[in-house]
Write a structure and sequence with these properties.
Strand content: under 5%
Number of domains: 2
Distance between the termini: 94 Å
Mean pLDDT: 83
Low-confidence stretches: 44-54
Shape: flat
Radius of gyration: 25 Å
Structural class: mainly alpha
Number of helices: 9
Order of helices and strands: HHHHHHHHH
Largest sheet: none
Helix content: 55-70%
Amino acid sequence: MIDSQMFKEPKLDVSLVTRLLPALLVVMVDDQICVIDAKLIEEPHYGLFLGPQIESMPEYVLSACRDQDVACTLVIYYCMHVMRQKDSGATCRLLRLLANCANDIVYQDTILHQFVSFLAGMADSFSGATFCTAVFDEFFLPNISRESVLRHLLRLLCLVFHRVAPPRMSELMALLAPTPQRSESVHAAFRVLSAKLLSHQSSPVTEPEKLDSPLMRVPAPTPAPI
């Protein structure tokens, strides 16, 4: 815009309003249905009436997110919303979608910083294999050649490593070991993560203290008969 000296915003694509927003609304409704289904499964009287969990994504959302920055930005902010709500199912589905977003805008430092902050609040979800696959294998790991992505992933692992399965954590540590070509900040982040893992593994399990007192062997008094 500055080079061309044409200070005029590009015309808004009408399909963003007529097609993308309704499709995103469908995605939001599907996610809410899944949340309600998950709650009803715990109720024995309603378990027989649940429909299948919705996994599909509207085709226009997929194509628009790949080709249009505005569409990708809308999906990014919706993904932050479901992360804030700690909806692990919707988070998995949206991260898979955003891994192929237009111009890789989701991998900007400002976006990744927000994602890591919200994912850290979902630490309990990292105990599940499906959630780890979506976050690590499908979102972060394909782009760890970028130093910023690797740095943010190391920061995330420093916050949630205690919930990740040990075999999975060992695999990640082998994949994320920095090469000599990496910057000092990446090496420092990896050393911090390694130190936390070592401290967590070597910390002894505290056993409850046994009380050795003669009072413990005295029987409790019985109530007097009325």
